[in-house]
């Protein structure tokens, strides 16, 4: 195990990313456990931080941790030192606290335990997936395929892969578009297939009552809804069930 870690993580320059990801996951799981205990009003668990009656959201602490970890990491020359790993871990912890309240920042109101609060959990899952792909050695927008090629080859590959991923995202296929940044064929599949009915692409290009709009809604009901329900169950298991709108 130690040899694998040294070979695959340390020697490849991914130590800081590994520390970031581990701290990010641990921080998210801890803060979700904490808020669920507070929600249940468990006596043995400390409550919210409310100095002078002002509720301090944990995103505030996350921003402080991110500033310390980010700026501290910039001042460290040795990327393999313990200090560099600690700075990356502190940044990951702060990022977890901030993204756990992403929906509050996005909507500018407290939607933590509402259906809209699921957005925070989705963003956290996407972040973990992206970091996991990077940790596996994958590079975004086809950089693996054009490594060693000329400048124009790199620019063309970047533009093509980015445009395909953006089309998939505009069609409402978030996971397809995000993973497609690293694996181009996945983004291509999402880009050529029908858009989700409520996506920006569908609202602009599928006329109400048109054949494409009807097909998109049928596909949404037949395939997307079951997957969404499964994702919601996983989200509820990890982060707690929303209580309302």
Automatic annotation (TrEMBL):
Keywords: Membrane, Transmembrane, Transmembrane helix. Residues 208-228 are annotated as: Disordered. The chain crosses the membrane at residues 15-35, 56-76, 82-107, 119-138, 150-170, 177-195. The keyword Cell inner membrane does not apply. Residues 214-227 have a biased composition (Basic residues). This is Integral membrane protein. The lineage of its organism: Bacteria, Bacillati, Actinomycetota, Actinomycetes, Streptosporangiales.
């Amino acid at each position: 195990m130690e040899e694998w870690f040294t070979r695959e993580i340390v020697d490849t320059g991914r130590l800081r990313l590994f520390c970031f990801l581990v701290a990010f996951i641990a921080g998210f799981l801890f803060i979700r456990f904490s808020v669920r205990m507070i929600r249940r009003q468990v006596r043995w668990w400390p409550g919210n931080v409310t100095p002078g009656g002002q509720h301090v959201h944990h995103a505030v602490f996350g921003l402080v941790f991110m500033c310390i970890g980010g700026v501290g990491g910039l001042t460290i020359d040795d990327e393999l030192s313990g200090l560099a790993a600690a700075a990356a871990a502190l940044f990951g912890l702060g990022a977890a606290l901030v993204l756990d309240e992403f929906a509050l920042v996005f909507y500018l109101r407290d939607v933590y335990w509402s259906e809209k609060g699921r957005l925070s959990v989705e963003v956290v899952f996407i972040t973990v997936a992206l970091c996991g792909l990077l940790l596996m050695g994958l590079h975004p927008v086809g950089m693996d395929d054009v490594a060693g090629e000329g400048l124009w080859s790199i620019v063309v590959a970047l533009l093509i892969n980015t445009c395909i991923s953006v089309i998939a995202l505009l069609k409402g296929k978030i996971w397809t578009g995000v993973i497609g940044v690293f694996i181009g064929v996945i983004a291509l599949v999402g880009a050529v297939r029908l858009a989700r009915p409520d996506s920006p692409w569908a609202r602009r290009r599928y006329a109400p009552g048109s054949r494409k709009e009807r097909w998109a809604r049928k596909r949404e009901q037949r395939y997307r809804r079951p997957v969404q329900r499964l994702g919601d169950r996983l989200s509820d298991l990890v982060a707690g069930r929303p209580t309302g709108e």
